[in-house]
């Protein structure tokens, strides 16, 4: 089961999750900005919104990005708490509605990097495995797990092996669908759970060091808008493992 609780300080990837994220710290994470949206580099270990007992989350700090007297941007989509990288924020009601339409239609291109325990048999492939969110009878609503199940929602992930070393693989992943924990469950299902995986690997590992990065996003909001393409840097907690698999920096 997946408990919805805050991370102990000692289990976060780069030390304690900060009680405050200053305006300068958040602005330093802006990868793209225009009149309609921001793309920021979300830090690993910080939830994007309040859930259950989680009280420290990104939405608390979004007012740092608002114009004087203006409304703060809002989440256009979500990333897992432990996932780092590209996160889109809408700055206007039209932008938020448009992003909702684009994500639903698959018109936002998302690419992830991960380091996995194990190496897939094939260098490229497609994982087509429906996923079901399961809550045990009598369990708290915030306790759940995602299971491969033929009766679940369709879920499809493309993958490519970019490198390998020491029994691990550096993977590029492109989800065609956007199910909760999709990449994490799909990688575990092919025998390659992600490094630092607390729930879907062979061991019950502490959360906070998941080796999963939302590496890039690309989209075009409308014909009259310029295309947007952003890339997030590899976070510190993934760099050694990526290097061992052949990554040579940005």
Structure description:
The protein has 250 residues and is α+β, with helices and mostly antiparallel strands. It has one domain (21-244): Pseudouridine synthase. Helices cover 14% and strands 28% of the residues. The protein has 4 helices and 12 strands. The protein has helices at residues 23-27, 93-105, 182-189, 236-244; strands at residues 30-33, 37-42, 74-75, 84-90, 109-117, 124-128, 131-134, 145-148, 156-165, 168-175, 212-219, 228-231. The strands form 2 sheets. Strands 1, 2, 3, 4, 5, 6, 9, 10, 11 and 12 form a 10-stranded mixed β-sheet that branches. It has a two-stranded antiparallel sheet with strand order 7-8. The radius of gyration is 18 Å and the shape is globular.
